Amino acid sequence: MIRVLLADDEAMIRSALAALLRLEPDIDIVAECADGEAALEAAARLQPDICLLDLEMPGLDGVEVAQRLSRTTRTRCIVVTRHARPGVLRRALASGVAGFLPKSRDADEVAAVIRRVAAGGRYVDPEVAADALSDARSPLTDRECDVLRAGAHGETTSHIARALSLAPGTVRNHISAILGKLGVQTRQQAVLLAQERGWI
């Protein structure tokens, strides 16, 4: 049996998918979680073979959960999303995600991907993969990405400076460069754009 943990903050989708996957003779849903923190806790306790994670969850998203699990467990992760943006795919693959597919796939296809990933394979939705190959690369430097990550939740310039061991003036210079490169007015707009494209 393939032991699967399912995490999605939309209760109806989570319970419907769990019910459909339970009809598969070789898949056992061992936990259903409503957010990333609960998924991390349950995965640490239950050690499932597969975590099927919604990308868009409050708090920790599916990619963040997968990244943390890749450091501490042998559980393999599949991320599903309503908005399969190419940049998010790059971020997911860099975080050790073994499967990536849109929520538009039916339960039979999801079950097939679970089997493939449980057997040691990987799966990326072909349309998302094609889009990712044609999507523009990040114009930001590694340090500029660090600054955006450190300030992703509205942290002050001083807090970012302390976190990255930089002078506050250096952080302000990086932020100014980021805004210019991305053509946005605020740091929060820059964070959202960079997250959407999978740059941070």
Question: In words, what does this structure look like?
Answer:
The chain is built from ten helices and six strands, in the order E-H-E-H-E-H-E-H-E-H-E-H-H-H-H-H. Helix 4 packs across helix 6, helix 7 crosses helix 9 and helix 8 crosses helix 9. The protein folds into two domains: 133 residues, Rossmann fold, CATH 3.40.50; 55 residues, Winged helix-like DNA-binding domain superfamily/Winged helix DNA-binding domain (Arc Repressor Mutant, subunit A). The protein is α/β, with parallel strands linked by helices. The protein is 53% helix and 15% strand.
Short structural description:
The chain is an alpha/beta fold and 200 residues long. It contains ten helices and six strands. The chain has two domains: 2-134, Response regulator (Rossmann fold, 3-Layer(aba) Sandwich); 142-196, Arc Repressor Mutant, subunit A (Orthogonal Bundle), CATH 1.10.10.
Helical coverage, percent range: 40-55%
| Mean pLDDT over the residues | 91
The number of strands is: 6
Shape: elongated
Q: What can be said about the biggest beta sheet?
A: 6 strands, parallel
Spatial separation of the terminal alpha carbons: 36 Å
Strand neighbour order, sheet with most strands: 2-1-3-4-5-6
From the structure above, extract its key features.
200 residues; alpha/beta; Rossmann fold; Arc Repressor Mutant, subunit A; six-stranded parallel β-sheet; 53% helix
Topology:
Layout: E1 2-7, H1 11-22, E2 27-33, H2 36-46, E3 50-54, H3 62-72, E4 76-81, H4 86-94, E5 99-102, H5 107-118, E6 123-124, H6 126-134, H7 142-150, H8 157-164, H9 168-182, H10 187-196
Parallel strand pairs: 1-2, 1-3, 3-4, 4-5, 5-6
Helix pairs in contact: 2-3, 4-6, 7-9, 8-9
